[in-house]
Amino acid sequence: MSSDVPAVEKAIRILERLAAEYPRPVSPATLIADLALNRSTCYGILATLRAQGWGASPERAGWTLGPRLLTLTRTGEHTAEVVREELDELSRRLGAVTVAVVPDGSGEFVVVATGECTQGVRVSIGIGDRLPEPATAVRQVVAAWGVPGAASRHRLPPEMRDHGEGLTRVRADGFGRSAGAADQPHGVAAAAAFDADGRVRMIVTVLAMPDRKPDEEIDRIGRAVRDAAVAISTRTGGVSPTYDVRSDPPVSGIGR
C-alpha cells in the first residue's frame, strides 16, 4: 500500500514547478491546469506555503519560491554570501544588530540574512524569522520604492504619506530614518538593495541600537546602511538609483 500523503505530494509538485520557473512568477491558473489540481486545493496549499515562508506572491501575476525556502537551498548562494559579508561589516562599524529582510507577500517581512554583532545590543533573531512590526524607516523605504509584496497596512505617519516631500527625501538620500519616532532605537534606519532590473531585492535595516540617537547621528547611520545596500546591489549585479551623497566623516563605532 502506498504511503504517499496526497496533500504533501501536491505541495511538492507545486514547489517543483515554482523552482523550475524561478524567479519568474507562475499564475495559480497555470498551476491548476498544468498540475491537474483542484482550484480550492491549489489555493489552500499556496496559502499554507506563504504562511510558512515557502511560497510568495510578490506580484498579482503569480507565485514564486518564498524567502524562507530559498535560505534552505543553494539558490542565490553568491548573493547570500555577499549580503552576509556586507551585514557583518555594517554591524561591526555600527556596533549594532543589522538584518536584510524581504516581504513574504502576506504583509510581513522575513529575515534572509543577519550581521554578526559582537558588541552593543544583542537581539535573538535568525534567518527565516519574521521581523517585528516594521519600523518607520522600513515603511518609508517600502513607500518610496514600491516594494512588491509589501502590504499597504504598514502605514506611514501622516507627514510621510502620499509620496510627498518626506518620501522625496528618502529617494534622494537613499535611506529611511526613524528620527524622533516612537520606535527608536528599533529600526533606526533602512535602505533598499536592488536587482539588475532596478527593483528592490531586499531591505537592509538596523534592528536595534543601545539608545536613542540625535537626528545628526541617525543621518550618519542611515548613510552607512545605504552604503551597505549599494555595495550589495553592486556586488550582485544590481542597479541602484543615483543618490544625493553628502560628504560626511567615516562612520565608525556608532552606538558604542
From TrEMBL:
Transmembrane segments: none annotated. It comes from Pseudonocardia alaniniphila. The keyword DNA-binding applies. It comes from the Bacteria. Residues 61-238 form the IclR-ED domain. Keywords: DNA-binding, Transcription, Transcription regulation. InterPro entries: GAF-like_dom_sf, HTH_MetabolicPath_Reg, Tscrpt_reg_IclR_C, Tscrpt_reg_IclR_N, WH-like_DNA-bd_sf, WH_DNA-bd_sf. SUPFAM superfamilies: GAF domain-like (SSF55781), Winged helix' DNA-binding domain (SSF46785). Residues 5-67 form the HTH iclR-type domain. Residues 237-256 are annotated as: Disordered. This is Helix-turn-helix domain-containing protein.
